[in-house]
Amino acid sequence: MVECIKCGEVGTISKAGKVGKKQRYFCKHCKLHFTLPNKNIAPRSELEKKQNVTIKDIAEALQISFSTVSKALLGNPVVNPETRKKVLDMAIKMNYQPNLIAKTLVKHTSNTIGIIIPSIISSSFYPEVLQGIQEILSEKKYTSILCLSHESYENEIANCNQLINNRVDGVLISITSKTQDTSHIKQFEDKNIPFVFINRAPETLQGSSVTVDNYLAGCKAVEHLIEQGCTRIAHIAGPTNLAFSKERLRGFCDTLIKHRMPIDMSLIVYNDLYTANSKECVAHLLNLSHPPDGVFVYSDFIGIELILAAKEKGIAIPTELCVVGMGNNPVSSIIDPQLSTITGPTVEMGKIATELLIEEIETKNQKFSNRLLDVELIVRKSSLRNESEIK
Amino acid sequence: MVECIKCGEVGTISKAGKVGKKQRYFCKHCKLHFTLPNKNIAPRSELEKKQNVTIKDIAEALQISFSTVSKALLGNPVVNPETRKKVLDMAIKMNYQPNLIAKTLVKHTSNTIGIIIPSIISSSFYPEVLQGIQEILSEKKYTSILCLSHESYENEIANCNQLINNRVDGVLISITSKTQDTSHIKQFEDKNIPFVFINRAPETLQGSSVTVDNYLAGCKAVEHLIEQGCTRIAHIAGPTNLAFSKERLRGFCDTLIKHRMPIDMSLIVYNDLYTANSKECVAHLLNLSHPPDGVFVYSDFIGIELILAAKEKGIAIPTELCVVGMGNNPVSSIIDPQLSTITGPTVEMGKIATELLIEEIETKNQKFSNRLLDVELIVRKSSLRNESEIK
DNA sequence: ATTCCTATTGACAACGTTGTCAGTAGAAAA
DNA sequence: TTTTCTACTGACAACGTTGTCAATAGGAAT
Q1: A112-212+347-373 and A214-344+376-389 share one CATH topology?
Q2: Chain C nucleotides near the protein (CB, 7 A)
Q3: Cys bridge to B4: A27, A366, B27, B315, which one at CB 3.0-4.6 A?
Q4: What is the CATH architecture of A44-98?
Q5: How many contacts (CB atoms, under 8 Å) link A and B?
Q6: Do A146 and B148 lie within an 8 Å CB cutoff?
């Protein structure tokens, strides 16, 4: 039945196993193993082919070698200006679009960075940071792969691997509130992939970072509350494993100590994740037998909850209770009374981190740099007992 | 001075031009052209090398061929289960991470999609859409490249080219308010790259899309205002070249006509970009000699501006003026009075669009599908004249 | 006319995979 | 023992670039 694809004989053929699902044959005469060729010839030339023009297509069109085309396209001075012009014209005429994938493979640089952030809808914070990042990226002709960890440690690990597999040149990362072990991030170091922490940095791993001065934030908030005459000052603190929470708390405590005021542990409560136990935190403070008259809240969102709950209970703000939040959420300036807040430069933060990262990528600089950005107190009605003090 | 790298002679050498900046020589005796080898030998083996383990490293460690390793890693049943196990173990031991770049080059699919959106900080809309997109992407093991067009037509073109050059498998795009010509998007079609419009779709190009039912939004808003007893109903409309603006306007007009109410052109104003001339729009309506008693605003942001301006002028809301916005911005439920709004499912929109796109990618389906998502009216104080009507 | 040399072009090996097919040892069948 | 035949493994050509180096035509110098 089957005849040899070389000599055409039929009698000399015997079966010779399978490759995948395809029967193989052996011709005794030619000592040749073979499989029957597929019937559908050249399916590629019909539809699939010529989706993209390559350097070789240009070379063929111009009857020159493809390496000359490559050089012309790269502006290499060894090529004759005339041929360069011809190549450039033909490239435009044929709508040539360079394959960055192939380029990455040979150059070992992708001009792509990875971005890992825990969330994009919890507040306007990360969108603003992203805005800053993208501004610099498009200026420097970089591309970005965006990953959301959704505050999950497992996702964060998966994201890191995904970025490594996609051979990014560098990574901007804001760790989850659950990240303790950092070996997945350490991988970047092993592979010489620079990374910069944004906003949230782990305490257990050395690395470049761009964060706001959270210690100063705690100080400024408490200083302001003391100025307004508060004497029992409380703090709703953030997740304890995040450095920024600790720093704000440290600023909070140090400032109280500086003013020789007692630190009452019952006035410090911890919110474990953005809104998980926030209601309990707020209720705890308001229901104390000896409640606070001033609160520094680590996030505007919970500050707003506090204001709403206090209004509900008939507690007058700011006369009975002053509130200072952090983050300058758009809502804060719209709520009644408007919420005082500590704010850092968010868009700027994205920009600075990206510039830092790209510099590390391009200079192969090994040294870490840690940038601390200044914070600002925006005084609004929620903490202003003397209206005339508004500047 | 220079001796032939082959025969070692000195007298037979003559110069032979340059290649780049490097001097070349010619040996008459051997008829050989050559350049002097670089002094620094194997700089790669020191630092640069072995950043990443490859399939060949595993093959060498196991003393088998790299194609067998590849097959083992891919789970190809032709490899012996024993060798597969050996390979898998060694891959883990050596911390092998597959190079997706190389894979993309040979497979012509990157498992990456491009996302082009006009903005990420103008409202919570796009972050929410992104959230939905990312949820599906991580579920389906896809990666995304994020591009912001910043409402600029030129940027949008650049973004499209960037995505093509990065060989994405598909694109999600929300066009800018300025996009008229769509040839840059048509490119995707030419290259067989599926794309899905999110929220904003051009009128001049056929394509899959996922949008909210903007016509219905206009209808619902006006129906509600009429129910509340409004008789002079105004509309602040969005950019005129965006289909969604036109649809909302069409719903607005049709509903007025349906109720046999006149359409007063002085009550329809156009906002050309998010906040560009919004103040003028608001002022125009409030300063009319015969002002409206109900307004449907195409965006919550401008609805809020309207409320603030009306309060400033002492116009009572909702008794003298009812306002309905669109977008359900978080601020809308916090402002006083709370703003009624029309809202569509934003996160859902991102999910549906992404599922649609991935389906088009994986089935190579050529047919376009246009999904219209239902909108919902959230009634709040800004448009509720009879308090008891709250359900 | 002969030699030298320069400007330009071409050939080819990477890069790290996948997939096709050829080759082989040795078990099963004769 | 000889002849099938099967289960594996290996070689190698893609994929679209970049970069290194060899080759060549023909002008300048002798």
Answers
A1: yes
A2: 4-24
A3: B27
A4: Orthogonal Bundle (1.10)
A5: 116
A6: no
Mean pLDDT lowest among A375-389, B95-109, B116-130: A375-389
Q: How confident is the model at residue A6 (pLDDT cuts 50, 70, 90)?
A: low
- Residue range A45-65: mean pLDDT, rounded: 78
Contact flag, residue A34 CB and nucleic strand D, below 7 A: no
Cβ atoms within 10 A of the Cβ of A42, count? Answer: 7
Q: For the segment B345-378, what is each residue's pLDDT rounded down to a tens digit?
A: 999 999 999 999 999 999 887 789 999 999 999 9
From chain A, the residues in CB contact with B311 under 8 A are none
**Chain B: residue whose CA lies nearest to A331:** B331
Which of residues 43-102 of A have CB within 7 Å of strand D?
52, 54-56, 66-67, 70-71, 73-74, 96, 98-99, 102
Q: Which residue in the set A124, A145, A167 is minimally distant from B145, CB to CB?
A: A145
Question: Distance between CA A136 and CA B326 in Å, rounded?
Answer: 32
Tokens 């107190």 — which residue? A377
Listed by start position, the domains of chain A span 1-37, 44-98, 112-212+347-373, 214-344+376-389
Into which CATH architecture does domain B53-98 fall?
Answer: Orthogonal Bundle (1.10)
Compute CA B153 distance to the chain's CA centroid, rounded to the nearest angstrom.
Answer: 14
State the Cα torsion B295-B296-B302-B308 to the nearest 10°.
30
C1' of nucleotide C20: residue with nearest CA: A19
Mean per-residue pLDDT of chain A = 87
Q: Determine the topology of domain B108-212+347-373 in CATH.
A: Rossmann fold (3.40.50)
CB contact (8 A) between residue A146 and residue B144: yes
Q: Element (H or E) spanning A359, and its range?
A: helix A346-363
Question: Contact A173/A155 with Cβ under 8 angstroms?
Answer: no
Q: Closest partner residue to A120 among B127, B144, B145, by Cβ?
A: B127
Query: Above 50 in pLDDT, residue B86?
Result: yes
The model's pTM? 0.85
Round to a whole number and report the distance in Å from the CA of B37 to the C1' of C1. Answer: 36
Distance B28 CA to D26 C1' (A): 19
Residue A97 DSSP label: -
**Largest interatomic CA distance in chain A:** 109
Amino acid A38 CA to nucleotide D5 C1' distance, rounded Å: 23
Which CATH number is associated with domain A214-344+376-389? 3.40.50.2300
Give me the CATH topology for the region A112-212+347-373.
Answer: Rossmann fold (3.40.50)
